[in-house]
Design a protein that fits this description.
The chain has 801 residues and is α+β, with helices and mostly antiparallel strands. It contains 26 helices and 31 strands.
Length: 801
Amino acid sequence: MKWLKIGLALVIIVIIAIVVIFPRLNQFQREGQMVLTGLKAPVKVIRDEKGMAYIYGENEDDVLKAQGFVTAQDRIFQMQLIRLLATGRISELVGEKGKNTDITMRTIGFYRQAQRHGKILNDQNRRLFQSYLDGVNAFVKKGSDLPLEFKLGGIKPETWTIADSLAVAYFMGWNSAANLQTEIIAQMLVEKLGPDRAREIFPLNINPDDPITTGGASKSSTRPERLNLNLMGDQKLMALLGPENQTLRAGSNNWVVGPTLSPSGKPIVANDPHLDTRILPGPWYPTGLITPAWRAVGVTIPGLPGMTIGRTDRIALGVTNSYGDAQDLYVETIDPKNPGNYLEGQRSVPFQTMEETLRIKDKKAPQGFREERLMIRLTKRGPVVSDVLPGLKTDKVITVRWSPFEAMGPSMGLDQVLKARSASEVQEALRETTAVMLNFVFADVDGHFGWQTSGRLPIRSRGDGTVPVLVTDDRDNWTGWIPLEKMPQLYDPPRGWVGTCNHKTVLDAYPYYYSSYFSPSYRYRRLMQLLDKPGKKSVDDHWQFQRDTLDLMAREVAPVMAKALLAHKDTEAMGKILGKWDYQDSADQPAPAIFQAVYRKFALAVFQDELGEDLAQLMLDDWYFWQERLAKMVREGDSPWFDDQGTPTKRETMNDLFYRAALEAGQELSSQYGTSPEDWRWSKIHQLEFLSPIRQEGAGKGLLGGGSHPMGGSGETLYRAAFDFKKPFGVKWSASLRMVADLSDDDKVLAVLPSGVSGRLFDRHYKDQIEPFMKGEKRYWWFSDREIKNHAQTQLLLTPH
């Protein structure tokens, strides 16, 4: 009894600590008055029930300075992590396991190029960034109220420069430019199979709005050259340029409906950007910015000023990844007489070289860090990526080229978007946005709406960006830029709406090569079904569309799969479940689990015998590369790829492979969840786990994180919940924000984050939006003065002195 009482007392103490003490460990000043040096006039910061700050100032510079300050209050630790990652310094925090990532970032040179770009910014853009960063740095220099995470992580906050912010912007842009991984995989396929056979399984890209589509790239692909690069199965090159370094690899849905489809007669913009949202507090930071001239409520990446997604008093906008191909790999020709040079035709050109120093956390080192030198070589096209990691199988010199480093200009377009008064002004502002390849949808209060792609894409004279280009002469295969007026766009379409789901948006007749890498068309085809349905769509309708779980890929493939499984007694139960499925990827159904598990094994069976285990796994890890192609094979019912090359005396059929896949998948599922397929609920294996950046595994993970949550949807549904092929079936990519902005509603914007506003452990707003996010409950950003006042929880007055 004594020990029971002691145990009960300890439990009570722990509960009190969690409920009462912990939330006070990591707080900052939200109320009262505080000096913010450099302000021209006092600034009022009102925070609502979510902890979201609404900033009232008498001028733009003061509001942006305060935005930087409150962002640092909430997210300075997250900002430090983003900067360490983008500038190639993450091994200072995580040690040896971050070294390859740092090598990538230093080699590509985000910070190096950001320093160059910072020098050419015009006065307006420089002031925009500097005002914001003055606020960030004021908080850092203040030195108090710093997050607990700095002590736990063993690092200190640092002041920010414009180059730091630009490096973050470039890092985001790199992950939207998209296809280096595809180039590497395509090259490996060509080496393994030859050009013609490899093209049989190259990405199939479909624009459902194109009445005549061949399913190719945005301009007919050229026949790839068979370059002997010896890349096949080279894990080191994939580690350098592949998915593990695509930290912000973006997906997303966005759409806008015009006056004819809106109950109010004003446009509605919906957006749910898909990112890896497992690490708290999530990538987006929300604020309200209010000046006498304009107001904006929305989100941006911490470290960048203004607003990326949201609405102002005049316009609303949302973004998705356009996957415009702005990246190319080149095989350079070394001067045989001078290995320190490369050839441009007959001309021998010395490599530009530079040395970088990596500082790697190491407990065994005298000061807790060790240093390693990194020598980087560059050609006129870009940095050499083939010699920064030892042990690459290729003996060729491979460089990477990226358009934003060549297209940088004096404006980033941020200020123009923030202050745009019409849809046409948004279009003009996006012409300045060269660092990132995005689909923007937008609308204005006058009823105009549209879609515009950002970034600069090269016109290629040879090669189409699908495989590396062999440099044989001094001609530049980038002969210019796609004219801005020819970039994919649409304005006030008669259809009444426009949207994007990372799918191929250009027509086959488009005169330029745009990309060979897009999302399969399933999400967009489902969006077409919902928005083309007669009748007006309310805000609530759009909110539900973002959580729609109908899987159109499964509707194509599952009946074929079910027929194959019903033909065998030991898979009949699985076949019956698939046969009666409504193709909703609902969490409480077993059918989605059976379908995904079997289809994954089926894909391996189709490709592994020809490609080998390593190459097949690399290709299948990139969902966009093969999904649409394999579904087409299934629809057609017969393909030489279905024959198992390991059994030369037998010719396997598609049904044989489905049966084999079902046996393997069923064995794995039954070993974990019981022998009855009815018990294999999607919710049991398909969960989204929220983790703290400082404790992602081991003891304490649950206390510091946000828990594991069953989730419906899949990679093929509008309710996006995609998993890593090699690590099934935990959710990796999902909505990092859900927003529906009705331009007839001047009081609020419907929006929810998957975590919370604060990035501080134990803060009450660290993970308070997880539950409403997972359940689909409504939350709002307040827009009008009245509603901001009605929902005010705290008020802080920032004064010049």
